[in-house]
Design goal:
This protein is of the alpha+beta class.
Length: 195
């Protein structure tokens, strides 16, 4: 074989090997120690998905069971679409999510966490081979070891009207009333307290 051909062959195997091993996550075993790495753990169904644009994508979950953390019945998970390990979220999919809070009402998806999707066909469930347990064993472990927690009560209706910017008419009336109050205060101060 010629040296040029060997170089091309070597380059092909290096590039092909990089594409095959692009997504490498550390192996983890289902245990309490592993669960302690995460702030929120839940099982839920995907309600809606906002794909990535210039910022992370958003998945809205309706939680079925909450094992760790605090959350309302609906919870948002942010995700990076450009990660090598990224998977697709589709409405109706059921997931067990292991994550950390990004803000109080959402979390950031770590594709190398123990998060896993439920597959109706057991032969498609590659997580069983990777993690060493199937979906039902994982749910059973979480229920017995962490328990099922209550959801927070939804208070979103109260928070919606807090930061409303007044209209132009309201702003003008507010400025006029403020000026009249200042003039009245100044007049009362000069009339009753003469220096």
């Amino acid at each position: 074989m010629t040296p040029f051909f060997l170089r091309i062959l070597f380059l092909f195997f290096v590039l092909a090997g990089h594409a095959v091993w692009a997504c490498e996550c550390p192996y983890s075993v289902l245990s309490l120690e592993e669960c302690n790495k995460y702030e929120i753990i839940f099982k839920g169904k995907v309600v809606s998905v906002k794909p990535c644009a210039d910022r992370p994508g958003e998945v809205l979950f309706e939680l079925e069971e909450l094992y760790k953390g605090n959350s309302e019945k609906k919870f948002k998970v942010l995700f990076d679409c450009h990660s090598e390990c990224a998977m697709k979220f589709l409405p109706g999919d059921e997931w067990i999510i292991y994550s950390r809070y990004k803000q109080i009402d959402n979390a950031m998806m770590d594709w190398c966490s123990r998060s896993r999707k439920y597959f109706k066909n057991e032969n498609e469930d590659f997580y069983t081979v990777t993690y060493g347990n199937d979906y039902y064993d994982e749910v059973k472990f979480l229920r017995t070891q962490l328990g099922v927690h209550r959801f927070l009560l939804s208070k979103s209706a109260e928070a919606q009207n807090r930061n409303v910017i007044p209209s132009i008419n309201q702003t003008v009336i507010l400025v006029i009333c403020s000026l009249l109050a200042i003039v009245l205060f100044y007049w009362l101060l000069n009339r009753y307290l003469k220096f």
